[in-house]
Amino acid sequence: MPLLETPFASLDLIRQPEQQNEPLQAFDAADEYLLNHLAEQQPSAETRVLVLNDSFGALAASLAGKVYVTSSGDSFLAFLGLEKNLARNGLAFDAVPHVPASEALKGPFDRVLIRVPKTLALLEEQLIRLQGQLAPGTQVIAGAMIKHLPRAAGDLLERYIGPVQASLAVKKARLLIATTEAKVSVVSPYPTRYRLDAPAIELLNHANVFCREGLDIGTRAFLPHLPKNLGSARVADLGCGNGVLAIASALQNPEAHYTLVDESFMAVQSAAENWRAALGERDVVVRAGDGLAGQEPQSLDVVLCNPPFHQQQVVGDFLAWRMFQQAREALVTGGALYIVGNRHLGYHSKLARLFRGVEQVAATPKFVILKARK
């Protein structure tokens, strides 16, 4: 893999999760552009730089030790990438303070570097949270590959930060440079809420939660077919989002024990708040993580999963395949993984390579619900 070469550092970087013969690199031209732009401003070691949505630590690791850098984002995998890439390049794994997107920032900051996220609601929430955190005259510089840079990103910067200037394109990347001006304080429109009829619950959704405005159609197809009569089973909701699958299952299985895991800090925050609202003080484990990577082998009886088919802008079934492998490792012999998936993704044949029995529980014109037994 090529090195990331900038005026700040020369770094050997890896993506997360790691896979053999990785076809993609852990940085792109937008990272280079952001770092080169900052270097032209000749920041000192005391310059306070906030990095938002750093994919795998390319920005923060480059700046470590050169400026006073803080990193913040909503991806546990990106946070893991930052730690691993710092260590990989001879720096302490905790050399850069990291603030999950679910937690408040502590400014003031002199410069803000932003990788424009796929979900513009996350960008909006992050810009709102910068209120009162920016030193006078601070530049907020957002970067992206042009094909992933919507016009609305510039509109949000203008609305919440100040006048925006778009850079020239370099290697198919562009920067949006906003200069801070006085703004009237804004109350965030997030989290949003919606209600379900069955089960009769209200679900809260922080800014970066998948299908924030309403239940996604895959989950809607899955809910009527969740396993019943689980007794005191140990159940995990893998990629839990706002927690709806686990909460619906827990309401039907009052003695079962639940673990909810997602790689989005805002999803985990939403799931924990929704669990408390629906189930009060009932015991639960809710955590941000790399799927079930930290789960003890053979410690679960049931895994529920509505697997993702993309990582940021990269589409594919790599993450789903990895989740299936993690589920198999974590399940006891005889335990079961229940998933919902688009028919065309062919999950049945993939599961059959890992599990001894795969059956179709239900189907709609678009989705299949499958049960894979270890």
Automatic annotation (TrEMBL):
**What's its catalytic activity?**
guanosine(1835) in 23S rRNA + S-adenosyl-L-methionine = N(2)-methylguanosine(1835) in 23S rRNA + S-adenosyl-L-homocysteine + H(+)
Which keywords accompany this UniProt record?
A: Cytoplasm, Methyltransferase, rRNA processing, S-adenosyl-L-methionine, Transferase
Which segments constitute the Methyltransferase small domain?
201-371
Chief localization class? cytoplasm
Per the UniProt entry, the Enzyme Commission number(s) are: 2.1.1.174
List residues traversing the bilayer: none
GO MF entry, a single one: 23S rRNA (guanine(1835)-N(2))-methyltransferase activity
Q: Any idea where the RlmG N-terminal domain is?
A: 2-181
Tell me where in or outside the cell this protein is found. Answer: Cytoplasm
Q: Which family does it belong to?
A: Belongs to the methyltransferase superfamily. RlmG family.
Q: What does this protein do?
A: Specifically methylates the guanine in position 1835 (m2G1835) of 23S rRNA.
Could you tell me what this protein is called?
A: Ribosomal RNA large subunit methyltransferase G
Name the species this protein comes from.
Pseudomonas moorei
Q: What is the lineage of its organism?
A: Bacteria, Pseudomonadati, Pseudomonadota, Gammaproteobacteria, Pseudomonadales
